[in-house]
UniProtKB/TrEMBL annotation:
<dbReference type="GO" id="GO:0015908">
    <property type="term" value="P:fatty acid transport"/>
</dbReference>
<keyword id="KW-1133">Transmembrane helix</keyword>
<dbReference type="InterPro" id="IPR005349">
    <property type="entry name" value="TMEM14"/>
</dbReference>
<dbReference type="Pfam" id="PF03647">
    <property type="entry name" value="Tmemb_14"/>
</dbReference>
<dbReference type="GO" id="GO:0015245">
    <property type="term" value="F:fatty acid transmembrane transporter activity"/>
</dbReference>
<feature type="transmembrane region" description="Helical">
    <location>
        <begin position="86"/>
        <end position="105"/>
    </location>
</feature>
<comment type="similarity">
    <text>Belongs to the TMEM14 family.</text>
</comment>
<feature type="transmembrane region" description="Helical">
    <location>
        <begin position="7"/>
        <end position="23"/>
    </location>
</feature>
<keyword id="KW-0472">Membrane</keyword>
<dbReference type="GO" id="GO:0009706">
    <property type="term" value="C:chloroplast inner membrane"/>
</dbReference>
<keyword id="KW-0812">Transmembrane</keyword>
<dbReference type="InterPro" id="IPR044890">
    <property type="entry name" value="TMEM14_sf"/>
</dbReference>
<feature type="transmembrane region" description="Helical">
    <location>
        <begin position="59"/>
        <end position="80"/>
    </location>
</feature>
<protein>
    <recommendedName>
        <fullName>Protein FATTY ACID EXPORT 5</fullName>
    </recommendedName>
</protein>
<feature type="transmembrane region" description="Helical">
    <location>
        <begin position="29"/>
        <end position="47"/>
    </location>
</feature>
Length: 119
């Protein structure tokens, strides 16, 4: 599976979570964190998709995806440990941990698999 197939929905989920946190609680920290991380993930996913369309790997996009997921895992994991609230900290930390593992696997396996060109 290609990284952008999961990164783009993951980015939308993080972005939507930040916007919902702002709308429901008035939390500007949720808006800034969610919108910032979500926008970075969407940008990285789009760059990875465009690179794949050109039959290339974007290691910069993969690195950015990994760093965002690891940062979200750490920050939201810390928040979950402090508050013990499943929503949103536990969910975001768990999802981000899974995505971090996926991205690290993609790095270890050499990035996106580019199928041979059919002629």
């Amino acid at each position: 599976m290609h990284d952008f197939c999961f990164t783009i929905p993951y980015g939308f989920a993080v972005l939507a979570g930040g916007v919902l946190g702002y709308l429901r609680r008035g939390s500007t920290a949720s808006l800034a964190g969610g919108a910032g991380a979500g926008a970075l993930l969407l940008l990285a996913g789009f760059v990875s998709l465009k690179a794949f369309e050109k039959r290339r790997n974007s290691y910069v996009a993969l690195a950015l995806e990994t760093l965002c997921a690891l940062a979200l895992t750490f920050v939201m994991g810390q928040r979950f440990l402090e508050t013990s609230k499943i929503m949103p900290a536990g969910v975001v930390a768990g999802l981000s941990a899974v995505m971090s593992a996926f991205y690290l696997f993609k790095i270890a396996s050499g990035g996106n698999h580019i199928p041979p060109k059919k002629e």
